[in-house]
Write a structure and sequence with these properties.
The chain is an alpha/beta fold. Helix content is 42%, strand content 18%. The protein starts with a strand and ends in a 6-residue tail after the last helix. 33% of the residues are buried.
Amino acid sequence: MSGRSALVTGCGSPDGIGFAAARLLGLRGARVAICSSTERIHERVDELRADGIDAAGVEADLADPEAARRVPRSAAPAARPRSPS
């Protein structure tokens, strides 16, 4: 998955399938953007980064059509390759 990016929704719970999928994708080398309807998404991002995963979070209620349309645009920066430091 190196060089690939993934957008995974439903990642607010540390024990949920969305977060597990994001972690697995990240451990396999993908950059991940994760989404949740609450600010706890930032805690999940911190957990992924602690595992060495390139991760970004987006807080959005996907039941709101406008918010759902914004998620891919908000997540796009996470999908871009990082320049070496």
